[in-house]
Amino acid sequence: MPDRLLSMADDYMHPPGDQQTWNESRYIDFHDPSSGVGGWFRIGMRPNEKHAEMSACVNLPDGRTAFYFERAPIDGNRLSAGGQEWTIGDPYRISTVSYDGPVLMLDDAWTLVDPKKAFTTSPRETARIRLRVETKGLDAVMGSDQAHIDKIFLPGQADWHYQHLCWVTGTVQIGDTSFTVDGRGGKDHSWGPRNWLAKVYLRWFIGISEDDGLGFMLVRAVGPTKKTRSGHVWEDGEFHVVDDFEMRNTYLDTAPHTLRHTELTIRSGAREWSVTGEPEGWVPLRHLSKDENGNPAHLRIVKSPTLWRFDDGRQGAGMCEMHDRVDAEGVPVGLHD
Fold first, then answer.
1. Alpha helix locations (H) across the chain?
2. Is 7 contained in some domain?
3. Rounded to whole angstroms, how far apart are CA atoms 92 and 80?
4. How many domains does the chain have?
5. Is 279 within the bounds of a domain?
6. CA angle at residue 164 from 161 to 32, to 5 degrees?
7. Alpha-carbon distance values, 72 to 27, 95, 122 (Å)
8. Which of 76-80, 172-176, 187-191, 333-337 shows the lowest mean pLDDT across its residues?
9. Residue 149 counted as domain residue
10. What pLDDT digit, counting tens, does each position of 230-256 carry?
């Protein structure tokens, strides 16, 4: 992929390529420790397959999860599908996300390991979501120069991509209960052919300090032919590409082998930052497809709203996302890293 600087137009939609799996996706996540509400929203347009992947998830303060997924029919490449709609205001700085539609009410999110059972047996409510997503602009984007993406993405994940930290405010209504949220998290946008099994395992860590002066997005990705370990730090208005980071992850010893604690040491040039993270919940997803050898493969994706503590004592919030192929015994393959 040639080096390319993003333009303001790249925050909008792109003409679809002719590949069957061509995808244009947008995603945000956030966690608000004050209200106890977190969540994530994704819309992935697949115009050549004439459907979109629409996901809506809210982590509720009582420990329940409100979740919905739909392969919504579409007839083009746009910013709405399945009740979820995005608008772009000031490019790279302000956008909105809304969702009006059903959600499953899950006392235990691990019900989703059997999606058919979860969707047929779980009670439902109606959600009304209105979120304003603010970022620090193009200068704070990992991928403003697409040469960045080679540091974090694997071949086949997407041709074009960018990601940045975000601040999410608005209202979340589930049934008759409403919450006002003021959360911290990440936002990304990618377009091109999409292969979820491009990775063997992946770690994505996102956090922003309570005073908003320090934030990070880190990716550790391992694929069949390539490994990456990089990301960026945003500190006091300055953008730093990460040269490397160490992570010391502690997992539950028994199934479902969830992340319980992480310690990160992040380096960029002569700068170094340390932070520890404590996941507060786990929402499992799965993708079933074929691997690079044509064999059936199962990719497990677990998303966790997370509290962070920086080495200077500041608290923070964000998300951890863990992708793993699972072996024949159902064990995630990346537990050693």
1. 115-121
2. no
3. 18
4. 1
5. yes
6. 135
7. 16, 22, 20
8. 333-337
9. yes
10. 999 999 999 999 999 999 999 999 999
Q: Tokens 């709203």 — which residue?
A: 305
Q: Calculate mean pLDDT across residues 286-313.
A: 95
| Contacts (Cβ under 8 Å, ≥6 apart) of 310 | 209, 214, 273, 274, 275, 316
Of 156, 97, 165, 166, nearest to 128 by C-alpha is 97
Q: What does the pLDDT read at residue 2?
A: 47
Say whether pLDDT at 202 is over 80.
yes
List b or e across 47-72, with b for residues whose CB sees 16 or more CB atoms inside 10 angstroms: bbeebbbbbbbbbbeeebbbbbbbeb
Please list, in sequence order, all residues whose beta carbon lies within 8 angstroms of the beta carbon of residue 186, skipping any fewer than 6 positions away.
27, 28, 29, 163, 164, 165, 166, 204, 206, 217, 318, 319
Q: Which residues face 58 on adjacent strands?
A: 39, 66
Tokens 């993003």: give the residue: 6
* Segment holding 194, helix H or strand E: none
Residue with tokens 């992480």: 262
Could you tell me if 155 and 20 are in contact, meaning their C-beta atoms sit under 8 angstroms apart?
no
- Per the CB < 8 A criterion, the answer to whether 50 and 77 are in contact is no
**Residue 332 DSSP one-character state:** B
Q: Give me the pLDDT at residue 77, please.
A: 96
Tokens of 75: 């007839």
What's the full length of the chain, in residues? 337
Rama region for 294: left / alpha / beta (φ>0; ψ in -120 to 50; rest):
left
Give pTM, 2 decimals. 0.96
* Residue range(s) defining the domain that contains residue 74: 23-325
Strand partners, 197: none
Give a yes or no: residue 146 inside a domain: yes
Q: Are 146 and 6 in contact (CB under 8 A)?
A: yes
101, burial (CB in 10 Å: exposed 0-12, middle 13-18, buried 19+): middle
Per-residue confidence (pLDDT) for residue 262, from 0 to 100: 98
Does residue 66 sit in helix, strand or coil? strand
Query: How far is residue 69's CA from residue 122's CA, in Å, rounded to a whole number?
Result: 13
Phi, psi dihedrals of residue 198, rounded to the nearest 5°: -65, -20
- Number of other residues whose CB lies within 10 A of the CB of residue 260: 15
